[in-house]
């Protein structure tokens, strides 16, 4: 009967389970961190270190988290943790945006469900409900963020509705007021007729919208161009509702125009034979097609510049529109579509407004906040702009002005909250000037001084700043920080008094912004100003000014942070949002950006590349993912993705990530099992005494250390992940550990090879678990505590390992690159032999390897049988013995051929090698090495 030597083999032993059970295990780890107060202890341990501050862009407190939140917050946490482990004090203070339309809209929905109108509700009661709503969602979102493993100051987050924040927002706006940058003006702004307020660019989304299109004649009444006398210029518009606001027509000064006479038309045409019309020459064919004009006679060609001084009459002249309509030169006119003539309604378009303003034409008030024409608008009083198109068309037909009509589906601005289409509407608003004190130039200079990751972010935000109009900061809503200024009734100008602003700010700091609505103006105006002469502004500050000011009431206000921040990080849409307004606010008040670097990530898509949305049913919540597979899977998905572009997410991707995680976990498990019983006495500190294979692993650690630190600096975590994953899967599992299993299991406990291997495995574990800690924070903690059980320790208290410089050995690495190339061919040959059933296991083989001298020289002094995991091997110079026909080869390793032969001898019953000396020693069925080990164990 064969002896059983199983008990003499040093098999791996660990309490670190193969099955992760993350969904069940992670809450316990979170509770442990809570008990340890890991955040506070990190701050205490980090005192005196160089600070790294990632300033949190505040999410909105109005609903459960979605996967976009998870991507964003996990990426922030990975950066903060990695900077902390690089030896810095990386304090992360989370925050929330609390004011504004989304919350206000929710409270209004409640009222509508109760049959109540917002206008009937006391403003303080309304604001109190908004505040309570935000507080409830902050509490919910806080726990959802913490479940993702996000470490931060959750006990002291910042909120834009905190009294101190509201006070500082007043002070920040006061700085623009005192500098003369803040002014009241009437300009067309994007207006929601549903929400009855102006919207910021970041509150706008573009959706397909079908508009009625009309081609309208404007009869010429005076012109320096003879050919135009008695003719009509024809405009084209997709917004018929703006026609009551028309006051001019624009042309392109460098464009070519044609004047023609209609000579024939098709059935149904509204054109009249003999009439003369002027349009852009490049657009003539399309106009003729739309108007069903079949034949024309060209009368003249003129340059746009020649049209200066031409005046038309409004199509509805004699019906309340008895004013002249001049033709004005506009560089924005193009030949892309239309007629080359653009009707100008200065109350409903930005180009319209500025062109008319430059020519002394004031914008008329035609539409109120509900989207209804005002009572003084002839023919359309009380009608809604989005329902009036048929009436406009009928009125144009009645006036003989309609040349053609149609429809167009195009991208059109909508409110991201109500989803309703928007209008441009001229309204009195408060603006911050981009020019008066050089705000645009300051912002552009700050952009150039900021590091943008990825670099194309610089060009994107620069283009926005270069072309943006003055900043509209007022909103006609209730929930927010009031524009807490007084307007002098005598001249209409805002009161600029720093003492008044400070009194208001102090009241807000003590009582909140509600004080503006309840306080007597005298308490703010003081004895210096008569309340009878001043009127308080009742608009609120747009929420983007709130969040754009966070650097002032968070970074500057907290002793544990610093200004400017090292990094702002959000999605790429924030080039027009938080990055943008923070830049303007800070440049306007402090002359530079509030950040040194800005990182942007892409948007989430499903696995087909479609945008994730609840309505499509393709958006799973992070709560669902975490409760099924655990937060570490979500975190691993984030760091394995290239966030610089749009990122795909879905069940199959989650499954792939889970498989990747399982491989990483199994690597950690093997390392822990291999270290069972390892202590300092077994350690080999002199790396020169180690075998080359161990020195090669240490060299790889030195390479990875450089890569890890470089990736952390570049915020390139998918590269860092690929490096670590490749190290685990290829360098360790498929190579080093595969080779060294024999030494670990079967060498004597005191053998140099086994001691060196265990020393290196201990070092690998230390490096790997720390490098992975920012990524899979729960698993790294579990592995660390398995190795170093403790009541009050954590892997997150550690720093990244310090890798000695003498571990780097490029010559050794070059040699082992060649060894591994040769081994690839041998391994491939063994796989084929196993598939052909020539062998069962690789230890049954004794391959004959034909290779060039360059590769054979690299193997000199090495046990290639051990490296190839065979019982024997023969290396032959292919120059002396050509590769035999039928030998296994690989195209990518030229000049190498392998013939698999069977090893000679008997199978050792302990190590399973097939060797000639098996059975010749004291213990039955053992090779010499195993006999020696068993003898020592028996003797012990």
UniProtKB/TrEMBL annotation:
The keyword Transcription regulation does not apply. It is an enzyme of class 6 (ligase). ATP binds at residue 614. Residues 29-649 form the Aminoacyl-tRNA synthetase class Ia domain. One of its GO terms (biological process) is isoleucyl-tRNA aminoacylation. Keywords: Aminoacyl-tRNA synthetase, ATP-binding, Cytoplasm, Ligase, Metal-binding, Nucleotide-binding, Protein biosynthesis, Zinc. It catalyses: tRNA(Ile) + L-isoleucine + ATP = L-isoleucyl-tRNA(Ile) + AMP + diphosphate. Zn(2+) binds at residues 908, 911, 927, 930. Binds 1 zinc ion per subunit. Its EC number is 6.1.1.5. It comes from the Bacteria. Catalyzes the attachment of isoleucine to tRNA(Ile). As IleRS can inadvertently accommodate and process structurally similar amino acids such as valine, to avoid such errors it has two additional distinct tRNA(Ile)-dependent editing activities. One activity is designated as 'pretransfer' editing and involves the hydrolysis of activated Val-AMP. The other activity is designated 'posttransfer' editing and involves deacylation of mischarged Val-tRNA(Ile). Belongs to the class-I aminoacyl-tRNA synthetase family. IleS type 1 subfamily. This is Isoleucine--tRNA ligase. It comes from Rhodospirillum rubrum (strain ATCC 11170 / ATH 1.1.1 / DSM 467 / LMG 4362 / NCIMB 8255 / S1).
